[in-house]
Amino acid sequence: MAVKHWIKRKIIFFYNKIVKEKAPAEYIARGWAIGMFAGCFIPLGLQLLVSIPLSFLMKGSKIGAIFGTLLTNHVTIFIIYPVQCYVGNLIIGGKLSYANVDLAMKDVIKNQDFATLFSLGGDLVLSFFIGGALLTAIMTPITYFGVMTMVEKYRKMREARKAARRPSLKKEDCKNHPGDGGRQ
């Protein structure tokens, strides 16, 4: 039950980060898409070094560029990276098994250094980037359009709520309005 509550809080946190940012919807969506691109394609540890400068270059939300990278984190990489490498290896026609990829990626994650990464061999590193390119091609447009839709819906909902709270000026309301002396 505690995990479910934690996940719900995180979803609400990210939702609020997205929809309450004071910027045009396209700007916000572009930043989150940049972050997703870096999160899918760039190895953990280098993602912010890529996403933040890209957000300046492409005029996207810096907040989105930072938080968008969190698709891959210290929890999800144990699932995403092995699958990404395995799929990438299938695309290039490699002969690595999922078990080999999983074990190699766990070594990289455990040691967290480039020496371990480059000791994996060219096929696995190439598989990582090919699989990452596929994941990027799927997730980046979904993120862009999803965030833009979310922001626009939130803003329309907020405007509708504001409009509903505003007093409407009908003829009956004008008769009883104290400032006009009851004239119509």
Layout of SSEs?
Layout: H1 2-19, H2 25-41, H3 47-57, H4 62-67, H5 77-91, H6 98-111, H7 114-118, H8 122-165, H9 171-175
Helix pairs in contact: 2-3, 2-8, 5-6, 5-8
Q: Treating each run of at least 4 consecutive H or I residues as one helix, how many helices?
A: 9
- Cα end-to-end separation: 61 Å
Task: Tell me, rounded to a whole number, the average pLDDT.
Answer: 85
- Tertiary shape: elongated
Taken in chain order, the helices and strands follow as HHHHHHHHH
**For the report, how would you describe the main beta sheet?**
none
Helix vs. strand class: mainly alpha
Helix percentage: over 70%
Beta-strand portion reads under 5%
- How many individual β-strands? 0
The residue ranges in which pLDDT falls below 50 over 5 or more consecutive positions are: none
Q: Give the radius of gyration.
A: 24 Å
Describe the structure.
- The chain is an all-alpha fold and 184 residues long.
- The chain has helices at 2-19, 25-41, 47-57, 62-67, 77-91, 98-111, 114-118, 122-165, 171-175.
- Helix 5 packs across helix 6 and helix 5 crosses helix 8 (122-165).
- The longest helix has 44 residues, at 122-165.
- The protein is elongated.
- The termini are far apart.
- The mean pLDDT is 85.
Characteristics:
mainly alpha; 184 residues
In short:
This protein is mainly α and 184 residues long. The chain has helices at 2-19, 25-41, 47-57, 62-67, 77-91, 98-111, 114-118, 122-165, 171-175. It has nine helices and no strands.
